[in-house]
Amino acid sequence: MNLEQPNLFQESVKEKTEEIKPDVNAQPAFSHNDIPFLPGLNGQEAFPDISDYAKLENLGKNCSACRLRSTCGQVVFGSGNLKSPLLIIGEGPGQDEDIQGIPFVGRAGQLLDKILQAAEIERRQIYITNVVKCRPPGNRLPNPDEVKMCGRFLEAQIRLIKPEIIVCLGSLASQTVISPKVKITQMRGQWLSRQGCRIIATFHPAALLRNPSYKRPVWEDFKSIRDVYKSIA
Ligand code: SF4
Q1: Is the minimum distance from the CB of 69 to ligand 1 under 6 angstroms?
Q2: Are 136 and 97 in contact, with CB atoms under 8 Å apart?
Q3: Which pTM does this prediction carry?
Q4: Which of 1, 32, 64, 203 would disulfide-bridge 69, Cβ 3.0–4.6 Å?
Q5: Beta strands 86-90 and 127-130, pairing class
Q6: pLDDT tens profile 212-221
Q7: Which protein residue has the closest C-alpha to ligand 1 atom 3?
Q8: Which domains are delineated in the chain?
């Protein structure tokens, strides 16, 4: 199956001025507070005493709080610019990520790179992580208890990075960050605001590899993300 549509993520820069123009001025400054960011999460469990990202990452890399650590190669905590206003959240590491210790480096990651490049967003300028930091065996979906356990790290990452934009890639990230009831097909492309942070969901690049018809809506979503990102970066 030819999964490539080489021109779809290479549309002209000129086009961006014609796209959706979110009301970027209507949002308050980022204001994370004592209320947990993630729905259903107990903030007291999300390492509230840790204010240093390196300490949090070290804790994560030595974590074995759920069964996923016993089958993965290493903990893939996240990568990129901790000062970025843009945080991208995927589902969990796959085989390539498990080997390299970096999120989104396999085929789906390469497609994400292409999308980011087309949207003129430099990957090294943003931060990328996953809902769970250890690869589920056979790339299965993480179980709810694993998501809950690892969500403590995601909550702490959000608290320390203080992103102004969160992009949820796929159903699991959307359900973890936005609401457990979210259906990605209905929610994608819509901007939400929570604690001064703008949140948007779109399809996971791995879903695009399986279903190339998702490429158009993802590109529409990323053009909107680009416009908001450029307005604040
Ligand atoms: S998936 Fe998360 S909670 Fe589970 S062992 Fe890995 S780092 Fe710890």
Answers
A1: yes
A2: no
A3: 0.89
A4: 64
A5: parallel
A6: 999 999 999 9
A7: 150
A8: 39-232 (3.40.470.10)
Paired tokens of 152? 């403590």
HEC letters along 126-165: CEEEECCCCCCHHHCCCCHHHHHHHHHHHHHHHHHHCCCE
Helix locations, the chain, DSSP H: 53-61, 95-100, 107-118, 144-161, 171-177, 184-187, 205-210, 215-232
Joined tokens for residue 147: 């998501």
> Does ligand 1 have an atom closer than 6 angstroms to the CB of 150?
yes
State in Å: Cα 156 to ligand 1 middle. 14
Residue (of 191, 181, 195, 178) closest to 39 by Cα position? 178
Please tell me if the CB atom of residue 65 comes closer than 6 angstroms to any atom of ligand 1: yes
Does the CB atom of residue 66 touch ligand 1 within 6 A?
yes
Q: Is the pLDDT of residue 25 over 80?
A: no
Q: How confident is the model at residue 233 (pLDDT cuts 50, 70, 90)?
A: confident
Q: How far apart are CA 82 and CA 96, in angstroms?
A: 23
Dist. CA 12–CA 119, nearest whole Å: 10
Question: Hey, how many other C-beta atoms are within 10 angstroms of the C-beta on 7?
Answer: 8
Distance, CA of 147 to CA of 53 (rounded, Å):
20
Report CA(150)–ligand 1 centroid distance (Å): 5
How far apart, in whole angstroms, are the C-alpha atoms of residue 163 and residue 49?
19
